[in-house]
């Protein structure tokens, strides 16, 4: 057989595999709050029934783009469904999640309700787990994770904000009776969501807590009794990460903070494999 003929079957197999993988990403709509909302869902091949579900939320002005986050390959390796919802536009015409920023005062979209509706819809439609549901998000999506921790702790087994903040408004209105595990990944040089917080609302996003204070708050809410600090191994060219782990909470709950030294406002440049680390945390709470 000539070299070219030997290459043809391999090429066909590659094309068929790529086509099969592409078919697992579906963009669909769900009516919630009187409007049609869109989302993209990735279902790995041979996904078993009752598989876990991870919701991934984009940042301000962002879109439901699986390629940006890179979570699909992690889902394929570990066997969970991943959904990317699309935020609606605010008064500025920017896609977002309504978390109560001052300039969102006239925004009537209820994203807590939408995400709650979405989870229940996906569970019914695809036979996904009723218990093992997780949520992560970048920036505005990370802020939404804190709001969900306060408003819907019954729906999520754990939450993983990346470069997100907890607003003073969420803190003051928090009446959560069943706090959930939480894992924040955040850069100390983030100029968009500042490590030191913005209690005076100088940047216009609303007053928010310093990141360590917000994480400590959720550690206290989870009644974590121990705090361990480790410096993670750092490969050449990578950012250094200091891991703060609050453990020994109610029902074994933990709260983590990965402090990326010199890290900026990023999903990828965090000093770790963001998707793998998030799943490593989430998978601790599968039941």
Description:
This protein has 287 residues and is α/β, with parallel strands linked by helices. The protein contains eight helices and twelve strands. It has a domain at 25-183 and 191-212 and 273-285: Rossmann fold. The protein has helices at residues 3-22, 66-69, 71-78, 111-126, 140-151, 168-173, 211-221, 274-282; strands spanning 25-32, 35-42, 53-57, 81-85, 88-89, 95-96, 133-138, 158-162, 182-187, 226-231, 241-247, 255-260. A ten-stranded mixed β-sheet has the order 1-2-4-3-7-8-9-12-11-10, with helices on both faces. Strands 5-6 form a two-stranded antiparallel sheet. The longest helix has 20 residues, at 3-22. The protein is globular.
CATH superfamily of the domain at 25-183 and 191-212 and 273-285: Alpha/Beta hydrolase fold, catalytic domain
**Mean pLDDT, nearest integer?**
93
Low-pLDDT residue intervals, each spanning 5 or more residues:
10-23
Strand order of the largest sheet: 1-2-4-3-7-8-9-12-11-10
What percentage of amino acids are in beta strands? 15-25%
Number of strands: 12
> What Rg is obtained from the alpha carbons, in whole angstroms?
20 Å
In this structure, how is the largest beta sheet organized? 10 strands, mixed
CATH topology of the domain at 25-183 and 191-212 and 273-285: Rossmann fold
Query: What is the succession of H and E elements?
Result: HEEEHHEEEHEHEHEHEEEH
Query: Any idea what the CATH architecture of the domain at 25-183 and 191-212 and 273-285 is?
Result: 3-Layer(aba) Sandwich
Shape: globular
Instruction: Tally the helices.
Output: 8
Structural class category: alpha/beta
Highest-level CATH class of the domain at 25-183 and 191-212 and 273-285: Alpha Beta
First-residue to last-residue Cα separation: 53 Å
Helix content: 25-40%
